[in-house]
Write a structure and sequence with these properties.
alpha+beta; 9% strand; two-stranded antiparallel sheet; globular; H-NOX domain; five-stranded mixed sheet; 2 domains
Length: 344
Amino acid sequence: MLQDGKAIPPDTMSASLAVRILRAAVAEGGDKREILSAVGLDESRLRNPLSRISWPVALRFFKILQTHLHDPAVHLRLGDKSVTQSFSDIGYATRLETDLASIIKANIQLQPLRQNMVRTTFQSTGQPPYFLWEYSPDVVQEYATFVEFSVASFARLSRQVLDEAPLLRSLHFQHQPQFDLAVYESTFGCPVQFGMSQTRLEIAGRQVFRPSPFANQALFDAASGRYEFPAKWMMEGKTHLAFSYFYLTSELDKSPPTLDRMAASFGLSERTLRRKLVDEGLSFRDLLDRVRQDMCRLYFMEDSRSLGEIALLLGYSDLSAFTRAYKKWTGKPPSRRTLPDEGI
């Protein structure tokens, strides 16, 4: 929750969330470069997982997406489709919790990292269980699109985790509708009302407490424990190592990780960042190797992906490049599924 010793700026959205939304928009037929150019966002800024986007830019982002994709309701689909796909995405490990209620609560705990424009709470003991969205009454209509996106994002957790449509009872929005009511009811599958005193979503209790098929305590602990090293580095003042660890974790599955690209996202020269990393104890190559080994261990524990997919998720161009690296780590080919040793 800290950046350079300062609290995350209020009313902002993370670059990581913007990347997820953008990825879903491209899957809908959008052109990434055109969208970023229209919004006025620099791609190198989005590559920094610690970067934040101000609320006016975030709202402009959604408006551009509606125009670009010729659909004023596209944010509802993007909320349903902008899912976490790998351990590079913050929140992916939450599916390893025991049931949907626990997964929802874990995602709400992460919400300030993703965005702090609105605050979501969840009452699992409600009859039925319900979500509440809280934000200033001064921005109710202005935030309408963003709030609808957020509601759709939480509603789709049941589809992502349980592989079934959300069993929603009712949905109340504080703002006025932005398009035909039938679009909302078709999206959420429940009665939707506007101009209400709260933004509130009710969900069936029998679905909330349904076990997650991905529940795995050992893997959840490993995914959480992976951040012990960067947290320790942060406490020791080795901020460039810590920030670079987070950057590489987020970037591995999106494009080839390079020092110059990482330096640009931090607003530093390649030479300066290289020197600072070495001064703090690891070269760029050694740090990248550590991140890849940490991530590799998680994917092997997950045991649901092919070696070719794991290679791509770790940022290797092909399986042979991953095989060479893995043999260097362990002395054995990855087909043996021997976990890399802790650390490097």
